Amino acid sequence: MSLETVPLGHTGTKVSEIAFGTWRFGRRNDTGDIEVDAERAHELLDTFADAGGTFIDTADMYGDGASEEYIGEWLETRDREDFVIASKIFWPTRDDVNGRGLNRKHLRRQIDLVLDRLGTDYIDLLYIHRWDDETPVEEFMRTLDSFVRDGKVNYLGTSTLEPNAWKVVKANELADRRGYEPFRLAQPRYNAVNREVEGNYLEMCADYDIGVIPWSPLAGGFLTGKYRRNEAPPAESRAANDQRFANSYLVSDNFDVLDVVESVAEDVGASPAQVSLAWLMHHPQITAPIIGARTPTQLEEDLVAAEIDLTNDQFERIASAKHRRSV
Predict the structure, then answer these.
(1) pLDDT per residue over 270-288, tens digit each?
(2) Which of 62, 70, 227, 249 is catalytic?
(3) What mean pLDDT value characterizes the chain?
(4) What are phi and psi of 125, to 5 degrees?
């Protein structure tokens, strides 16, 4: 198969229709083992690139910087210009009081470390990993704009857990008044069961021409179909070892959505995970969902979602399976 290319939001840059997320690279699990080491990371990146993947997502804190290092090592054997690399800055990287957030000192230190680990003199997309209410918007927007002017960053984006449409608008309107680079991309959590961005946030993105690149497209694994209603979760699953996750996801209305996803999956001869990804790709506002994987086989299976063409009726069946809350 070969992934198609799509515009990166409302920019002139093109990316693959699926992005590859590398948050597992170098990450130590609860037992202290590395989930995806350098060798496996390079295998996964090879698999993604061989399928036509060009859009790679990372962050400065993934694996305490190891994710970016693995990608940088892999890029040494590739043409860097063939890929669109996104990273993020916000979370603590030092013990000192300025070693986190979006203050100018932290941002300037981190962008140089990001570039060094990736082995490149620029990244295509820099997200703020979360919002920083302790730093004035003027300060971080001006600092981020300087990265674009200096050629270290091509585009800016905002990643969020809680919808914050008015904050993004405030920042972009300030950028417009000052002549700064605005946020052109948004990376919210969005999938068939996590629908909190529907309403004001997606409407804001549409009105301000902000492309949407959702993370957690499979709801932490819930939409793979591994969980069954009124049954104990599999012993090694996330829900079996994370009560907060179980309380959030193993609930009746989520299973109502999963029932519809599985019905559509049966209709089109695909897996629930593939249909869940295809549902996002069918959404007119979505640029590219970000998928992660532990093995090349798992990645190859998820990439098949690009070959699934849902009908509008199938899309709406899934969309209407859960009561949507406007925020």
Answers:
(1) 999 999 999 999 999 999 9
(2) 62
(3) 95
(4) -145, 125
